[in-house]
Amino acid sequence: MDNIVFGIFVVLLALAMKSSANVPLYIGGFIDLNTTNGGWNSGGVYPAIELALQHINQDQSLLQGIKLELVIKDSRCSDAYAIKTLVEHITADHTVVMLIGPGCSIAAEPIAIAGKFWNLVQVAYAAGTPRLSDKTLFPLFYRVNAPETVANLAIVAMLKKFKWSRVAIVKEDVAVFNDVSEGLQLLLRRENISLIGANSFITNPDNVITDLKQKDARIIIVLTYEGKCRKLMCSAFRHGFYGKHIVWLLRGWYVEDWSKVVTDVTCSPQEVQSAHGNYIAFEEVILSTSTEKTINGLTPDQLNKLYLRQARNISYPINSYAAYGYDAMWVVALALNRTNTLLKESGLTLHNFTYDNKYIASIINESTAKTRFFGMSGEVAFLDNGDRISSMWIEQFQDDGEIRVGVFDATHGDTGVDRINVTGSFYWPEGSPPPSEPVTITEIVLIEMPLFVTMATIACAGIFLSTLFLILNIKNRQRTFIRMSSPYLNNFIIAGSIMCYTCVILFGVDVFLDESDHVIHSAICSFRLWLLSCGYTLAFGTMFIKTWRVYKIFTNHKLDKQLGRLHDRHLVCMLALMLSVDLLFLSVWQAVDGLKTEIRNVQTENGRNKITILMPVFLACTCTHKLIWLGCLYTYKGLLMIFGLFLAWETRNVSYPALNDSRYIGLSVYNVVIWVSISVPLGYTVVYDSVNAHFALVSSAINICTTSTLLLVFGPKLRSFSISPEHHPESTRASAKSNVVKQHPECPGCKCE
Ligand SMILES: *[C@@H]1O[C@H](CO)[C@@H](O)[C@H](O)[C@H]1NC(C)=O
Ligand SMILES: *[C@@H]1O[C@H](CO)[C@@H](O)[C@H](O)[C@H]1NC(C)=O
Ligand SMILES: *[C@@H]1O[C@H](CO)[C@@H](O)[C@H](O)[C@H]1NC(C)=O
Ligand SMILES: *[C@@H]1O[C@H](CO)[C@@H](O)[C@H](O)[C@H]1NC(C)=O
């Protein structure tokens, strides 16, 4: 049996079946046997070719009077050995009429390009390089297999099926894979699948793996021979570049259990296996699944059983391309049978062929092109360019080996997802195919409940306090102390405060909303702005107007001069004017560039090695020119405050405590200025992204400012309820009168010096 292994051997078969008168006709064969230097070993195809030869020589209807003899040489999947063995064939004593093989593209190409100089028609059984499809370069070349580029169609269809839109290519730097990669890149571009890198390596894949890792590649198409693929997987394992999020798309024509071979890598089979995970492989449908009888009379399955029996005797692994080997031999025989018939008409025989006989070569070429039969691999017929198109098995590594999960129909030449017929089931550790990019899942960040409850409680307590003041204010409006501080206007301060407190609660409603409550959130956004702005104007505006009245009265030294409109009624008008500025401004803002809800991410997590990234988001109130609008609002409020401070300063010496709130106003303004100057810049910088910190800052600023203002304005009056005895209004007025104070007619609460 070892007679085929190395060197030149003449295979003599089935001699007994034919008469000894049969003249031998030689066929030059190439098989890649010694592939210790890498490449694809086609040794396992040999028994199938041998089987075909037996069947051909037994067939009485074929090549009568001729016995085919196959001379096999080892082309070693090497261009150098391919040339060497071709020369050996040509310089041998016998003339070979046709060439069969080799299996490996690297060796097939030089033979195909040189063979035409000796007029040798070549039929290959596994060479897949797309370059060999070029009929102008390789006019006498045929192959019963499909070019490697057919797998590209299947790969792209697969990418589309699993919605993988971001892929990387890794290839061994040899012509066949460079060509396949070029075709693949074209297809990827056409299908809008983004290619993050096409790296190639010659011997050491470490750099490639480092780059893939850095680019966070998930879906990687590998175009290498089996040995380099093992090296790649070993390197991936060493670099920790593996896991559930990575899917490798490999060639399916590696030998069975290719990952368990450890002769050329430093990794154990388990390590290689954990690196490749549940890879997907694409392999031509080589052995026909049909139950039809082949040209030989046996079904493909029966032929395969014969092949397996024959292959037991050789030291090479079973090769899935065996059916192509069998059919390639039949192509040669049928082409020669046809040529033989044609030559007889012109009185020639196949034995008249010489290496410079273009005529016979052209007949062989034509006959080969027209060959059509049903073989072990199904219907065999060549395209115009000498190729054959077949379907592709889609296989996945599951448990301990490759399982066929589907088939891709490549005969249409497109990448339609519907060309994939899934017959088995894919296995995914996560239950579904990992995405080609980490999937971002947004998660809304809500204000912490305890924080919200705390602030809302404080605000409610504030509202309660305001209500209390309101009741006291109304009930005691006849009391001198209250009456003199214009209870009517005080109600506006309280109303303003309640509005501000309500705002705190509205700032926290986010806890109850999610992304779907967009509309409600936008409404609340605008509403609380209106509320806060108006509440502020009501509370402070009223305070300042009151002070303004005091200021007007006390700076009017000529008592007889008409003081003008200082009645509450007029003051309310002033307040209304101030409010209308607010309302006008807010209306313009709302109309031109209203606040809207926007979903903002807080921060982006590093998604490396992760299938899903959790992205916290929050609902932000924003508009195109928020800073400008807010700037205007702050300026208006600030001017109001400066005006208030000025009044407070001017009236600081007024000695009527019931009238003079100036010290308290000063304190309030001071308080507000401090808080605003802390919270506004902080709110826009440090805590902008932190929902909780932002809420805590804003709500405590409002709570503290409002409460302190409320207490400063009403606190002293509250004290007066408890310490001052119940005065009769009349008696107070009397005593006031005795202090040479003249009451202003327009202003019952006011007393003028
Ligand atoms: C295979 O080839 C290598 C080098 O190319 C050589 O060292 C080795 O002896 C060969 N093996 C056989 C069995 O001829
Ligand atoms: C296999 O080899 C054994 C001896 O080594 C031989 O007897 C047998 O016929 C061979 N089988 C085939 C199918 O070649
Ligand atoms: C081979 O050629 C002969 C004619 O010379 C033809 O009758 C026969 O059918 C051919 N054999 C096959 C298998 O096509
Ligand atoms: C073809 O070969 C036969 C012998 O095999 C020979 O008699 C004949 O002359 C040859 N014809 C040509 C054209 O060479």
Tally of helical runs: 20
The set of bound ligands, ions and cofactors reads:
2-acetamido-2-deoxy-beta-D-glucopyranose
Number of strands: 21
Proportion of residues in β-strands: 15-25%
How far is it from the N-terminal to the C-terminal residue, by CA?
Answer: 133 Å
Look at the structure and give the mean pLDDT: 85
What share of the residues lie within helices? Answer: 40-55%
Note the quaternary state here.
single chain
Largest sheet, in brief, is:
8 strands, mixed
Q: What does the radius of gyration come to? A: 47 Å
Going across the major beta sheet, what is the strand order? Answer: 8-7-9-10-11-14-15-16
What general outline do the C-alpha atoms trace?
rod-shaped
Low-pLDDT segments: 1-20, 725-753
